[in-house]
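> call design_seq(struct)
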């Protein structure tokens, strides 16, 4: 991943409407780097995050300098290797047309193509907002199961011929409401995710065991549905729980600030380590109910320390007054998987280690 030392597409969705009028604070933040080049040739392996860092001081202003609207931000399949991105200094905009041509944002030049069979989507070649391979393993597994889901999740109650170790094709019996589902992931609840601010358990992390497919729904007078194991990652057995297979995840998205102000905390570091660095995954104690969605970008802060006031020592050394220091911003977090009260984020750029309890806040 290149150029992560520059925080890049952090406000890819700042503009809710194309060419939206920026507030004075937004306008002040949306500046280009003094050494920004006049143009950049897109090459395979580039990401929007990388390219934005080439031009912008605060690259979360990416959509503003393109005049992108919300729909375009959600589907940014429009920049491909070989295209040239121009910095139109007169307009303060980026464009796919040379300065002085087109409409500021610009569109690729029209090219006549002879009729021929094309079997691949152009979107496969479009550059990604971030390197998708870094979050691919986290997109299709349960990861988090919230309290309500645990209570109503179907569970495995028996296996074919009482087998302890189950493999692909083995039969298992499941009790519970399927809600019309036919393909399920099998999981086992593991560690509790506690809110660092309230101590409340928001959800449980889930160990992904594999998947099962409905073979035959329970007939009248029968309590259990019949399933076949379609994939195994870890041992599964009686007592393990089922969750519906999620829809195919979005593979490309434009980073943007949350739709509403978010002030959360880093709740855990994936794999249970104490500190995290660039390109590692953490959870935060905010989710969809708090205004987060896929692609939201948060800034990371170390909580400001409270230190003694050297000028006010108190009487006889007692009752010494203190000073609260400001929180220190040291990096950015890209939210790629959102649940109701919990979200997973990829650490995009940091100048210090990430710790549980650090602040994760909307970009300023």
């Amino acid at each position: 991943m290149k150029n992560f030392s520059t925080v890049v597409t952090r406000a890819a969705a700042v503009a809710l409407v194309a060419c939206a009028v920026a507030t004075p604070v937004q306008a002040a933040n949306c500046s280009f780097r003094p050494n920004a080049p006049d143009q950049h040739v897109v090459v395979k392996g580039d990401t929007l995050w990388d390219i934005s860092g080439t031009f912008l001081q605060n690259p979360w202003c990416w959509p503003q300098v393109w005049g992108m609207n919300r729909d375009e931000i959600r589907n940014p399949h429009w920049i491909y290797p070989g295209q040239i991105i121009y910095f139109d200094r007169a307009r303060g905009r980026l464009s796919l047309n040379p300065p002085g041509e087109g409409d500021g944002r610009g569109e690729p030049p029209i090219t006549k193509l002879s009729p021929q069979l094309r079997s691949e989507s152009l979107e496969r070649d479009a550059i990604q907002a971030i390197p998708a391979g870094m979050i691919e393993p986290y997109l299709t597994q349960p990861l988090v199961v919230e309290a309500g889901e645990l209570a109503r999740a179907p569970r495995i109650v028996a296996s074919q011929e009482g087998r302890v170790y189950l493999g692909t094709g083995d039969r298992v019996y499941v009790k519970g409401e399927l809600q019309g589902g036919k393909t399920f992931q099998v999981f086992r609840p593991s560690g509790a995710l506690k809110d660092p601010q309230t101590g409340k358990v928001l959800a449980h992390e889930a160990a992904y065991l594999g998947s099962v497919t409905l073979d035959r729904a329970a007939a009248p007078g029968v309590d259990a549905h019949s399933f076949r194991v379609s994939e195994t990652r870890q041992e599964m057995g009686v007592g393990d729980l089922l969750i519906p297979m999620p829809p195919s995840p979005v593979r490309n998205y434009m980073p943007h600030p949350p739709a509403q102000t978010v002030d959360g905390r880093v709740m855990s570091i994936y794999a249970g380590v104490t500190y995290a660095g660039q390109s590692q995954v953490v959870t935060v104690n905010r989710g969809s109910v708090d205004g987060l969605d896929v692609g939201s970008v948060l800034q990371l802060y170390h909580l400001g320390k409270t230190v003694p006031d050297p000028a006010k020592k108190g009487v006889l050394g007692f009752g010494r007054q203190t000073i609260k220091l400001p929180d220190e911003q040291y990096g950015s977090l890209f939210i790629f998987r959102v649940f109701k009260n919990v979200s997973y984020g990829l650490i995009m750029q940091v100048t210090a280690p990430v710790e549980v309890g650090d602040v994760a806040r909307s970009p300023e």
